[in-house]
Design brief:
about 425 residues, alpha/beta, Spore Coat Polysaccharide Biosynthesis Protein SpsA, Chain A, 7-stranded mixed beta sheet, 12 strands, binds 2-acetamido-2-deoxy-beta-D-glucopyranose, signal-anchor, EC 2.4.2.-
């Protein structure tokens, strides 16, 4: 602690010595400036024209030895007053420079922030009465920029409905699940969905099944991951690929393929946040957040420390609006995934969304919403709770995401049997978890 306290004092000392040295240097500079201004009234670089004046003045001030004592004191007085005038002007100019520099710095600092504030808030407003103030959640969408990908822009014009669509990435490893995925989307009658094909086989498969498909332009960075990358690596790709969709002005419901669609999700979105995501949580507390009290008995009176907890957003199913914070999120996640090759995209996605700004770190300021965990249901909720509960098992979710179980395909098919074909026993053979 003492070291911390000393440091500023020492700095002040050295600063004041430094400052007085500067003052002396400036005074000397100003003095010589005055002298030179007197002798070289037209500046240094007009030697030929000023030479006669110089010799004339020198002659005047130096050569007459006997007769000119009063003239030389006159000269000194003149020099003195010129010196005073010059230093006054110098102080004035320095003050002006200081003021202008300060204003410039402030303007630079505030420019970006202020522009965004004006854009979001419009004119300054007074706060309303108690209970009637509400902050903003909904950021303005970006101006669409078709130049980032004209081909995709054309395709999205055809596929999207009200500038929104479901997007899934797929390679040949997930072909069977993809089939269940689009079969149920078609059954529900959702027109606005698109598969981003990561290999040729998936492109042909989609075309053969009348499924809107987008084959990306070759990009070696992305393509090598798409072909050879593991589950997590491929999952990380979506953050890079999604950027263009948002830049084109589309809201994207990003979807993994281990998801069964039972209703149209676009009828169940709130669209008030940058990111609206399904949860890995399994009840109100874990899905929507709770105050988790940490107990440290050794602290006695202060043994209870309150902590904020929430089960993560599932990065396999979220709706993302085309806003600046959303695009910043994609960039931050993609950037970290490429710098930290062993990181898990879902962990990074949540860290970027939820950690606040703190010393040395500027957090993302994005609005977030957790989807209803009964409507956008993960497979833990379904197999642990819902299927055993008389009331809950009668509700029809919007989607079921088989994210908690490795035997994805058979469980997806069972979900279809249960909810679509009404087979009451379809979910029975499966254990709550996996061994
Ligand atoms: C969970 O939250 C919902 C809505 O917020 C509420 O209706 C329900 O009673 C809550 N359930 C429990 C078990 O607390």
């Amino acid at each position: 602690m003492s070291g911390r306290r000393d440091a500023p004092l020492m700095r002040n000392n050295t600063q004041s010595i430094f400052k007085s040295r500067i003052a002396i240097a400036i005074a000397i500079g100003v003095f010589f400036g005055g002298v030179f201004a007197f002798f070289f009234p037209n500046g240094f670089f007009f030697v030929s024209s000023s030479a006669p004046i110089l010799s004339h003045r020198l002659a005047k001030s130096i050569s007459p030895v006997g007769s000119a004592e009063c003239e030389s004191s006159e000269t000194i007085n003149l020099l003195k007053s010129e010196f005073i005038a010059a230093s006054e002007r110098n102080t004035d100019l320095k003050k002006q420079i200081r003021d202008l520099t300060q204003r410039l710095q402030l303007a630079e600092q505030g420019k970006d922030h202020a522009q965004k504030q004006v854009l979001v808030l419009g004119d300054q407003k007074k706060a309303g009465p108690f209970g009637f103030v509400k902050g903003l959640r909904t950021n303005p969408i970006v101006a669409p920029d078709e130049s980032v990908n004209p081909r995709l822009a054309k395709l999205l014009e055809k596929v999207a409905v009200r500038k929104e669509l479901i997007v899934a990435l797929a390679n040949s490893n997930v072909k069977e699940m993809l089939e269940v995925w689009f079969t149920n989307i078609k059954r529900v009658g959702i027109p606005n969905y698109l598969v981003v094909a990561l290999d040729e086989d998936i492109t042909t498969f989609c075309e053969a099944n009348n499924v809107p498909v987008y084959k990306r332009d070759p990009d070696e960075d992305i393509d090598s991951v798409a072909r050879t990358g593991g589950n997590h690596a491929v999952s990380g790709l979506k953050f890079r690929i999604l950027r263009e969709f948002l830049q084109l002005g589309y809201g994207v419901l990003l979807s993994d393929v281990d998801i069964v669609y039972l209703q149209n999700p676009f009828d169940h979105l709130h669209r008030d946040s940058d990111v609206e995501s399904m949860s890995d949580g399994h009840d109100n507390r874990t899905a929507y957040g709770f105050n988790d009290v940490f107990d440290e008995p050794a602290m006695g009176w202060a043994r209870y420390a309150h902590t904020m907890r929430m089960w993560v957003f599932n990065s396999g199913f979220f709706y993302i609006r085309p806003t600046i914070p959303s695009i910043e999120l994609l960039d931050r996640v993609a950037g970290r995934l490429s710098r930290e090759p062993h990181s898990w995209d879902q962990a990074v996605f949540n860290e970027e969304l939820f950690f606040p700004s703190h010393p040395g770190y500027d957090g993302l300021h994005a609005a977030r919403r957790t989807m209803d965990f009964y409507l956008f249901m993960n497979s833990k909720v379904l197999f642990k709770t819902v299927r055993k509960d008389a009331a809950l098992s009668k509700l029809k979710p919007v989607i079921v995401h088989v994210n908690y179980h490795p035997d994805k395909l058979p469980r997806m098919k069972a979900v279809v049997e249960y909810y679509v074909n009404g087979k009451k026993d379809a979910l029975k053979p499966f254990p709550d978890g996996s061994d």
